[in-house]
Amino acid sequence: MSTPDPVLAALDADLPALTALRRDLHAHPELSFQEERTSERVASTLEGWGIPVIRGLGKTGVVGVIRGGSSPRGLGLRADMDALPMTERNTFAHASRHPGRMHACGHDGHTATLLAAARPLRDAAAAGRLDGTVYLVFQPAEEGGGGAREMMRDGLFERCPMDAIYGLHNWPGLPEGSFAVCDGPCFASSNEFSITIHGKGAHAAMPHLGIDPVPVAAALIQAFQTIVARNVRPIDTGVVSVTMLKAGEASNVIPDRCELQGTVRSFTTEVLDLIERRMRELAEGLCAAWGARCDFAFHRNYPPTVNHPAETALLREVMQEVVGPERTLVFEPTMGAEDFSFFLQAKPGAYFVLGNGDGGHREAGHGLGPCMLHNPSYDFNDRLIPVGARLWLALAERWLAPQAA
């Protein structure tokens, strides 16, 4: 018979209180850079446990500082705090109390999980099991605001010198309580484009007197799909999606302009450079062929999230120790984006996921639809809190283990 894990047993005992905290955060979601209540709740909780905090990095970011021993080594553990601008369809007791704001991605759960690890980490440092500093990074504005970048601009890595940083995200559909990680790229870059085609308006009955931007847009949409099919190497990956098309005000008027918007995603900067260049060439060339002209804008939001080999290998070993090899899975990279990528451009580390299950954990009163990320019927699985916290503790104990004299 295996010996029970005393840390996990203690975390399980704390689960009701941690669940209440998570559900309080869920009921009071805050959007990017507006996480005032959330960051205050995080900071005051840490301070109540005797853990020093740094406030205000990235406007509303909070960092808990746990020091042990005398080593200058440092390790960052990150949780995001912001919600999404969408209306929740669940009606259970902890559903959002603010229409148009919802924790539909589990950042409330990530925050609660890292908080759950705080006291065990504090106790491990006091007991001499950590030689170095653990930085608990509670980050704002992951959902499009680039909160990781803003924390760095405010001096995160200067004020909190760390040798590596790790980030966790829950993953619906993955078996509950399992972990998954992959080497190299795991999330894609996120980029937006906007194209305005300028033609010449005319009566719909007299198209020869105008320059119709609508067929130019149609040709351009089709041409964009050839970039990945015929310019990007088949073994590379890219996605070009035109998601918005705006033109015209009346059915009998040929408009003088047409607007296209959409996104581009890739796992490498080289592929992204190629796609942007070809999009611009096609837009300008096709418009010129029709006698029109265009304004082309391309905005790069988040770079690809690329895990570092050594840090990923160590993380995989810790996962196997915590949940076993059979529950340590290989993550299939996604074309979604994550601003943890900015941290991994500056520091070694890895981004990984924790299985949220199939949605069976949701209480009565959940909305229709699957328990998927960014779905109005989503809810974080509170049973993951002790599992995730145990992983954070085990990872810190491996990274900051006292060195033999």
Automatic annotation (TrEMBL):
Mn(2+) binds at C105, H107, E143, H169, H374. Pfam families: M20_dimer (PF07687), Peptidase_M20 (PF01546). GO terms for biological process: diaminopimelate biosynthetic process. The Mn(2+) ion enhances activity. Residues 192-284 form the Peptidase M20 dimerisation domain. Signal peptide: none annotated. One of its GO terms (molecular function) is metal ion binding. Keywords: Hydrolase, Manganese, Metal-binding. Its cofactor is Mn(2+). This is Amidohydrolase. It comes from Aquariibacter albus. The lineage of its organism: Bacteria, Pseudomonadati, Pseudomonadota, Betaproteobacteria, Burkholderiales.
